[in-house]
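Supplementary notes for students who missed Thursday's class. We covered one full example, reproduced here. Read the sequence, then the structure, then the short commentary at the end.
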Amino acid sequence: MSRAGIIAWQVLISVTLAVVWEWGYDLHERVPWLVPDLLDPYFVSKPSAIYDQFLHASCLVDKRGTWNGWSSGEFSKCMARSENNLWVATLVTLKNTLAGFAVGTSSGFVLGLALGRSDRLTAIFQPFIVAANSVPRIALAPIIILAFGLGNASKIVTAWLVVVFLVFFNTFEGARSVDRDHISAARLLGASEWQITRTVIIPSTMAWLFASLTPAISFALIGVILGEFIGAQQGIGRMIIEAEARGEAAGMMVAVFVLMIVGVVLAGIVRRVQAYLLRWRPQTVGNL
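Structure (token representation):
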């Protein structure tokens, strides 16, 4: 199928879902067996209400529905009144996500590389790693909040905890699966252990590392939101909790859509970097 055909199908599906979402529940009284209760606007709101809530949460319109102009200063006044408006919340969540992703990826890669290269370290630390990985991350979130407070540090630590094991295990398997003939050839040419690691092990492990980065960036976002659910001063997770406390389904859905957009953009950036750094590998078709 051509690219234009694929886009046409995607647009058609999106429009159909939006139409059913907006007006589908109106048929519930006449055909309740056909329209599920899940479409009740009380639970999932409506696209029109979500759009209006987005305009208010982002300070683009005031309470009367009038657009806030840049020259009049109404937009800046609205931003100053709300310490956790949509823009600030998105920026805080995005900053913590990237920080947790960077720390988790780098530490997971170093640990995976170190243990993958050493049978002795693997034998010593394997039971501890398996035990730590077996603990549900959500069970540790309240402890992290208690230890690091309600600020950004606890969100970064939570994201790191979610990401590090994913990257570690991929890197570990990649380091263990390097062709032994390549290592023997490098030693035969007089390469030191550091040179072998730098020129043979790391390049061979990069494909395994990048295979974990796309889910890792999504997991980092999940970790930050989880931390914000438990307790936060700012962030999209706090917006969701506050909207839930007020019973505002539209407010919750605005935050969910923003998270979806942020996740898609971050995953797309990671894929672009992966495609550039691994451009020497054969390209596959149909990857998600």
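Commentary. The domain at 83-277 is CATH 1.10.3720.10 (MetI-like fold). The first helix runs from residue 3 to 23. If anything here is unclear, bring it to office hours.
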